[in-house]
Amino acid sequence: MDLYFSPLACSMATRVALYEAGAEANYLEVDPPTKKVLNDGSDFRTVNPIGLVPTLRTDEGVVLTENAAILQYVADRFPQSGLGAAAGIDRTRLHQWLCFIGTELHKGLFIPVLDRKAPQEVKAYVLEKNLSRLDYLDNYLKGRDYLLDHFSVADAYLVTVINWTMATPPIELAKWPNVRAYYERLRTRPSIAKAIAEEFELYKVEQARKKAAA
């Protein structure tokens, strides 16, 4: 299968899941500004017209988009990994957390704060309105190791999003000690540590490339 990704973007969650499952995949880096696939120079929009990562092409040639859907596919494709949840209320809760991370944290909180073109008053409004999501998460994680009763694709997504706090100074994890402890504990997990290290190196190359092109 082929995973189209950009370094340290939300697509890193799928990399973590694939590493956790011990799955083989081709990792195809997409340059965000140009939408070019760096491996071969092709136009990523011929694969995903919206031009967003992650995008996954399965072994059968089916193209999947949207983080929550891709993560659930990986969990179902590799059931021995334990990344998913059994049918019924457990699977519903997994879907609940994937939706919460994607809407309340990823899009609702972090993307506006990370957007360099967003006016400061917009960022201030977003922080005032949506930091309560981290309050909720901090309370939930008290006394818990994972979002479910085991490591799942939801944890892979959450760690990926929390990792963005290194680029969002207004969101200081010290204010949410349970979230910070969760993040610090999980980032040492082999699949996560490997993914962060590899993508951070690619991110540095990406930044150098942008600097040279400026």
UniProtKB/TrEMBL annotation:
<dbReference type="GO" id="GO:0016740">
    <property type="term" value="F:transferase activity"/>
</dbReference>
<feature type="domain" description="GST N-terminal">
    <location>
        <begin position="1"/>
        <end position="82"/>
    </location>
</feature>
<dbReference type="InterPro" id="IPR010987">
    <property type="entry name" value="Glutathione-S-Trfase_C-like"/>
</dbReference>
<dbReference type="InterPro" id="IPR004045">
    <property type="entry name" value="Glutathione_S-Trfase_N"/>
</dbReference>
<dbReference type="InterPro" id="IPR036282">
    <property type="entry name" value="Glutathione-S-Trfase_C_sf"/>
</dbReference>
<dbReference type="Pfam" id="PF13409">
    <property type="entry name" value="GST_N_2"/>
</dbReference>
<dbReference type="InterPro" id="IPR040079">
    <property type="entry name" value="Glutathione_S-Trfase"/>
</dbReference>
<feature type="domain" description="GST C-terminal">
    <location>
        <begin position="87"/>
        <end position="214"/>
    </location>
</feature>
<protein>
    <submittedName>
        <fullName>Glutathione S-transferase</fullName>
    </submittedName>
</protein>
<dbReference type="Pfam" id="PF00043">
    <property type="entry name" value="GST_C"/>
</dbReference>
<keyword id="KW-0808">Transferase</keyword>
<dbReference type="InterPro" id="IPR036249">
    <property type="entry name" value="Thioredoxin-like_sf"/>
</dbReference>
<dbReference type="InterPro" id="IPR004046">
    <property type="entry name" value="GST_C"/>
</dbReference>
